[in-house]
Amino acid sequence: MKLNKLLDTDLEIDIKGITDDSRLVKKDYLFVATKGYNVDHYDYIDDAIKNGCSFIITDRKIEYNIPYQIVNDLDKCYQDLCLKFYDLNISDFNLIGITGTDGKTTTTTLVKELIKDCAYLGTNGLTINNKTISTSNTTPCISELYRDLSLVEKANLYTVSMEVSSEALLHNRVAGFKFDIIAFTNITGDHLNVHKTFKNYVDCKLQLLNYLKEDGIVIVNGDDPSLNKIEKAITFGFNKDNDYVIEDVKYNKLTEITVINNKHRYLIKSPLIGKYNVYNVVLAFIICLFYGIDEKVLIERIKKIKPIRGRCEFLDFNQEYDIVLDYAHTINGIKSVLEAFKDYNYQRIITVTGAAGGREKEKRPVIGKIVMDNSDISIFTMDDPRNEDVNDIIDQMVGEEKDYIRITDREEAIHYAFDIASKGDVVLILGKGRDNYMAIGDKKVEYNDYDVISKYFT
Q: Which residues share a beta bridge with 378?
């Protein structure tokens, strides 16, 4: 596309792509020098030029020999450019936005599976008609987000079940979007390295409400006190004053969930285990009811749902013990997973986990204690250490405790857990899920827990 079709300029430069990541710049790209929490892309203009960009947009003074434009509202300009470049009309889409600390990926994926003619966008990538493309973030950067929507449109899909992260809201990535349905799973302490206080984190999450259509619907976990301030919302949970009350749960091979709405009773049978997944399944069910799918169809589809990749995912390599891969890395997430497995009659719970470097050191000892209190064998290892020493992170997790195993190399830690596991045990591998990298130093090194597990059995 010609530059003068994107901007108010006389220049007819060919623009073949738009990005704010200098590493992704190619010949004839337009580079937008945005400022994020960890990275100021203004500092990478030289790299963008070396990689072939033909035009720069920034909100600060620069002096370069290639064409550029300085704008006041960089985020708004970035969105407008992407809308024009990808020829999108956001109002053409039915958008379902799901946010919260835990449960976003599971609930969003469930919604996609239950609606059928629906795309998924979130931590596990962009899924269109069962084909998945990896993405850089839970909610991708602006140019990637609009590119993804253009791919959805090309597939003749117009409903998107989408995870919306707090960082995406903080950096206005979904500004200009209008959601048909917005849902909140829960809000517990997380990402305080970015938001500084829990109040800031909650307020940031609630910004999603600004992007609701006039006739849109809001659904919230009514058991979560952090969500009580949301007005005119449909509520669900175990508390009796919710609109949809989870009256009874039986934890069998299929979790049986009874939900009451006024005098209407729903019996939902789900293959997903644990109380935390009860919340996820019920929320997905309510979202799809309001989307317009018949309750009997939903109940039948939920019964046949396959486990979500990297979310309480049971792996079968013909081993005598159970292996479960899960993304849980927050205090609430890890506590929920471990409590769920204590309800089952395993001989031993063997847990492999760590904590991310460069953020929220205060939650490390809390997570460490939860793991050691609820596991028979606790193995602590690396999990995106970034610029911190793995041993220092583990020291903070275990404190003065002696009853644990330290193996800093994650592959060795996982393989050791399998070496010691016996029939009747469960090995929980927590923190990474299906992530395809390990953040070490300033780089993302290729790494995948599933590949490490598979390697052990081949």
A: 351
